[in-house]
Amino acid sequence: MDLSRVEMVIGPEAVQKLNDATVAVIGLGGVGSYVAEALCRSGIGSFIIMDNDTVEPSNINRQLPALTSTIGRFKADIMAARMRDINPLCQIKVVKEFYKPGSFEQLFLNDKPDFIADAIDSTESKADLLKEAYRHGVPVISAMGTGNKLHPELLEIADISKTSVCPLARSMRKRLRDAGITQGITVVYSHEEPQHAVAANVPGSMVFVPACAGLMMASYIVQKIIAKQD
Question: Lesser CB count within 10 Å: N end or C end of the chain?
């Protein structure tokens, strides 16, 4: 993979740090697929990608693996093939499972990542992943709610303790607080009030909000990895 344009910005030593790093991306939907692809294009050398979902027609408006030609296929398989096509030298461990509470140590026992990107939809699973990453000292950045949002410019990166408005962030604050964690978890969240033009039982979505959240997460991870002291 030609990373000459990346090297112009961050230098050869930083490019080597990215190549030596392993990042786990948990959830490969509207946010996670953009995290994974942006990190791959930035030169991250090894990945653990995890998602048990298959592509549905309703995914096409916002998810990278979702095309009319990929309906019914596993998102993890599609993203792995796409990432290997971008960088044939990157190492990818594909886990076609749903992250369940209690599975952290089994998942990362032999493959401890340098960073975790959390793009899980389930509040129970998300809370468990964040608690376990915190307890095991694995750096993590987590996506809060991007559904029913229209303005990507209202996204920001903050400690979980500094979040407001976002219902998912509020739920995470409570669950983490119940576990004795009040700060130290970095998140991407929006302080935009939810948009509800049409009532529905599932969140609506516009591609640019989850996509921008994913790109912001990838940028944060890259900057933290290259700033890390050897």
Answer: C
Q: What is the pTM of this model?
A: 0.97
- Asked if the model's pLDDT at residue 230 lies above 90, the reply is no
DSSP output for 21-73: -EEEEE--STTHHHHHHHHHHHT--EEEEE---B--GGGTTT-TT--GGGTTS
CA gap 213, 210 in Å, rounded: 5
CB 97 within 8 A of CB 77: no
Q: Strand order in 186-190's β-sheet?
A: 91-95, 46-50, 22-26, 115-118, 140-143, 186-190, 155-159
Distance of alpha carbon 29 from alpha carbon 121, whole angstroms: 9
Spatial contact of 213 and 146, defined as CB atoms under 8 Å apart:
yes
Those residues with Cβ within 8 angstroms of residue 155's Cβ, 6 or more apart along the chain or in another chain: 146, 188, 189, 190, 209, 212, 213, 216
Burial of 106-131, coded b for 16+ CB within 10 Å and e otherwise, reads: ebbeeeebbbbbbbbbeeebbbbbbb
For 178-199, what is each residue's pLDDT tens digit?
999 999 999 999 999 999 889 8
